[in-house]
Design a protein that fits this description.
heterodimer, A: alpha+beta, Immunoglobulin-like, 5-stranded antiparallel β-sheet, 3-stranded mixed β-sheet, 5 helices, 15 strands, B: mainly beta, 24-stranded antiparallel beta barrel, two-stranded antiparallel ribbon, 3 helices, globular
Chain lengths: 301, 550
């Protein structure tokens, strides 16, 4: 009898093997059909990175590749953090002298303990907090798949008006379900297309393009209340507005780099407003999960 | 946690309600407390908690052919050289096992290894902060004379949780001489194993295997002083769950190890070769880090214990390496000119490890690369070590161990740096270790070590250069020992880093309890056990250790 049980066990084991034949690629995938709904579930990938981190560009490329498949549902935020990989070289050097870090990035890193686990790491809508939120890039795709299947609770509309370097930003939030909970709205500024040094595998790339770099959080780091009401009903709408001066924000980062950050050198300026975007997201204050996220470029009305 | 308490409760109620044969309870305890002070000179950071601690308590109950055990682990918070996912308290290890009529059944946690570990090794190594214990069911069965089977179905531990993959494995080992009643002088032992990981994954662009299988076969021949061991392993396609084509590798993996040993009294020689290609098995295919590695390519270089010999250690590359080793042991007989009164032991060892021809195997719709099976010339050197150790007892009071070595260490590759940052470091090392027995119960041991290093190519970062190290250890047996050690990096190209790393330690041993307190500076470096390595951050502080058993 034991031998029989053993034989069954062995046969079931040997059959546990899936060899894949060419072609390996299939093209079944893609984003969701957005034609019937005004709002779809969007996903924020917070890519914790650093210009001295040689494996980080591979994670950034994974983010881009996921974006290529799922389109506008995937929103990236590159957050340069930590003393090891994101510190700038002294100004006496010729490369890696730019300081991509920010006060808000460091706050997020301290709270979510990202650099302690080594870069690159990402958070996908911050799911898994507090034990499983720091995702290796190989986990991003699966997590995105899980998130895409979730219901849409809020829709976010962003509008902005830019006059020289003053901007008015209005965030409209529509509740799409009845819900209770403590939801916070965070509004960030990002910059695309920054050409600067980056370690990339065995290369030191002078012309690396840094995209969706977190520049500033114009709400508080941990967000503003979506509403003070304890109950939210389907159809409720909330408006938040922010007035900012981009030069002030830029100067703040330069000052913060020079005076606060580890080995900072103040080289955090040269902002190109034409490449700026606004990212607004709502998260559940109970578990930090991001419920919805939206982005536009800053000058779009 | 609740479950663990119930198991403990059952265990003790069983123990105290079963009349005469109460069985036995044994255990051991280990505490490692360390304070971390800021020391800008060595880039050591202070811990917010000031002190951190790792502690373990093992309790093992045995009665006849039944054994059950638990391990309580406490990381408040984990020492800085541990992954910070080790956090908090818990009982992550608990098991019960019994055997009857040749069948052994284990439920819960267990450690296991098939063959030399090429396709599967679950183990614990506190020095590395690795514990990938399995949790599930394991059966071991002696089918007959000389035939042993092992099977399991389980998940692998990572920190305080379990990795995503489900593992199924089987290993069979046949001692042909026993099984077939052979009377041959040569002993034949054959082994075969199979492991499969199931991990559900969907990918919008690529077909992914949900079940990834690994096979291995091994042969051990023993005849008199001769011993041959060879194992070959194969892994089917196991691509990363990515949608970047250049990351998705459908190539199979393979590895082999082969060694031939001859030994007789006072003489032994081992020649060994191994190769690994795309042979990393992860307990979760999507994760990165040593906590998720579930197979083992045995190291091919000599494991060194002396500080400066281990300053630049060799990390085995499961994704691709080819290595050779020759190890000769010879004892010069006592009463001869070189052997003296007690004889002299010599150990000569040489090893060399290089990369595979144009990297590991790679296969997808755009690329198809298979490296040459054996290729040494012009391949990137990872590590080489040639060393001679002389161990001699001079008289009843004095014995010494002398080691000279020359090592070449590809720092850029082995530590994942950008090529040209540190380059390849060649170091010549000398170690003299002398023990002197002063009187009964009192002995002193001294180590003098020197390391002279040079970068073999120009590098952009300054090199650490030359080191000297001295150690004095005074033992009053059986209770006390005192040690003082200084490592001095006098040759650092960066003058501000020409520092002394001084460590003081005092230990007290009484019965089954051992206490040790120490203070010192540690250099940032790579620490390896058996070719598996971790980065140890620099630190400055006090440490306090207790080990105890009953």
């Amino acid at each position: 009898m034991k031998n029989l049980i053993y034989s069954i066990f062995i046969i079931s084991l040997i059959s546990s093997c899936d060899i894949i034949e060419e072609p390996y690629i299939n093209n079944n995938g893609g984003g969701v059909d957005t034609s019937s709904n005004q709002y779809v579930k969007n996903i924020l990938i917070e890519d914790f990175t650093g210009h001295l981190c040689q494996n980080c560009p591979d994670a950034a490329r994974e983010l881009e590749a996921i974006h290529d498949v799922y389109g506008a549902q995937i929103i990236g935020l590159a957050i340069h953090v930590g003393n090891t990989f994101a510190r700038p070289y002294p100004l006496s050097q010729t490369k890696f002298t730019y300081d991509f870090r920010s006060k808000w990035g460091e706050e997020l890193d301290n709270f979510f303990n990202i650099t302690d686990a080594g870069l690159p790491k990402g958070m996908i809508n911050r799911i898994g907090y507090p034990n499983d939120h720091r995702k290796d890039k190989g986990q991003w795709l699966s997590s995105v798949g899980d998130e895409l299947s979730k219901d849409v609770i809020f829709g976010i509309n962003i509008s902005s008006t830019l006059l020289t370097d003053n901007a008015e930003i209005i965030i409209n939030t529509d509740a799409l379900k009845n819900t209770t909970g403590n939801y916070k709205l965070v509004v960030c500024l990002t910059e695309n297309g920054i050409i600067n040094w980056q370690k990339d595998g065995t290369l030191e790339d002078q012309n690396y393009i840094h995209n969706h770099v977190l520049r500033s959080v114009i709400s508080s780091t941990w967000g503003d209340e979506v509403t003070l009401d304890s109950e939210i009903n389907n159809g409720d709408s909330f408006e938040h507005s922010y007035s900012i001066n981009l030069s002030d924000l830029e100067n703040f980062n330069m000052d913060h780099s020079a005076n606060v950050l580890f080995q900072g050198n103040g080289q955090a300026g040269d902002w190109d407003i034409n490449n700026f975007g606004i990212v607004a997201y709502i998260y559940d204050n109970d578990n930090y999960e991001i419920i919805q996220v939206e982005q536009i470029s800053i000058s779009t009305k | 946690m609740k479950k663990n308490v119930i198991i403990l409760g059952l265990l003790f109620s069983y123990l105290f309600t079963n009349g005469q044969d109460l069985g036995e309870i044994h255990g051991d305890f280990n505490l490692n407390l360390q304070s971390y002070l800021e020391d800008a000179s060595i880039n050591a950071v202070a811990a917010d908690e000031v002190i951190r601690n790792n502690s373990y308590l093992n309790i093992l109950f045995t009665r006849n052919n039944f054994t059950a055990g638990v391990r309580y682990e406490s990381y408040l918070n984990a020492l800085l050289d541990y992954d910070d996912d080790f956090k908090g308290n818990g009982i992550p290890y608990r098991f019960a096992t019994y055997s009857t009529s040749g069948l052994e059944i284990t439920a819960g946690n267990f450690y296991e290894q098939f063959g030399s570990g090429l396709i599967f090794r679950s183990y614990e190594e506190k020095g590395l902060g690795i514990d990938n214990a399995m949790d599930g069911i394991r059966l071991k069965y002696k089918i007959g004379n000389g035939i042993n089977l092992k099977t399991f179905i389980a998940k692998s531990r990572t920190y305080f949780t379990y990795a995503d993959g489900i593992f199924r494995g089987i290993d069979a080992e046949i001692d042909l001489n026993q099984a077939m009643n052979l009377t041959s002088k040569t002993k034949y032992i054959l082994g075969g194993s199979f492991v499969s990981r199931y991990q559900q994954r969907s990918n919008p662009l690529f077909e992914l295997p949900q079940n990834v299988g690994l096979y291995a076969g091994r042969l051990n021949l023993i005849n008199g002083g001769w011993n041959y061991f060879g194992e070959y392993a194969y892994k089917i396609n196991d691509p990363l769950n990515s949608i970047q084509q250049e990351n998705v590798n459908y190539a199979s993996g393979s590895a082999f190890t082969s060694s031939l040993t001859y030994s007789k009294k006072g003489f032994g020689i081992t020649a060994e070769i191994h190769r690994a290609d795309n042979m990393l098995l992860l307990s979760d295919r999507d994760r990165i880090g040593k906590a998720y590695i579930l197979n083992y390519i045995p190291t091919l270089s000599k494991p060194h214990a002396y500080s400066l010999l281990a300053l630049y250690p060799c990390a085995t590359q499961a994704m691709g390496e080819l290595g050779f080793q020759l190890d000769i042991f010879y004892k010069i007989n006592k009463g001869t000119l070189l052997g003296g009164r007690y004889g002299t032991k010599l150990n000569f060892n040489v090893s060399r490890i290089n990369g595979l021809n144009s990297g590991n195997s790679f296969l997808n719709d755009n690329q198809d690369h298979t490296p040459i099976l054996i290729s040494v010339i012009d391949e990137e050197l990872y590590y080489s070590d040639i060393n001679l150790e002389i161990n001699k007892k001079l008289n009843k009071k004095v014995r010494y161990n002398l080691v000279v070595a020359n090592q070449t260490y590809n720092k850029d590759f082995l530590e994942g740096k950008t090529p040209g940052e540190y380059g390849v470091i060649n170091s010549t090392i000398g170690v003299l270790d002398i023990s002197y027995k002063i009187k009964k119960g009192h002995s002193i041991r001294m180590e003098l070590q020197t390391l002279m290093a040079k970068q073999l190519e120009t590098a952009s970062k300054k090199e650490e250069g030359d080191w000297v190290m001295g150690l004095a250890e005074y033992t009053i047996s059986p209770n006390w020992f005192f040690a003082v050690q200084d490592m001095y990096n006098y040759g650092n190209e960066d003058v501000s880093k020409q520092l002394h790393y001084i460590n003081l330690n005092v230990g007290f041993i009484k019965g089954a309890n051992r206490f040790e307190i120490g203070y010192g500076k540690k250099r940032e470096g790579i620490f390896c056990v058996g070719g598996v390595c971790k980065l140890v951050p620099s630190s400055n502080g006090l440490n306090f250790n207790i080990t105890s058993s009953f």
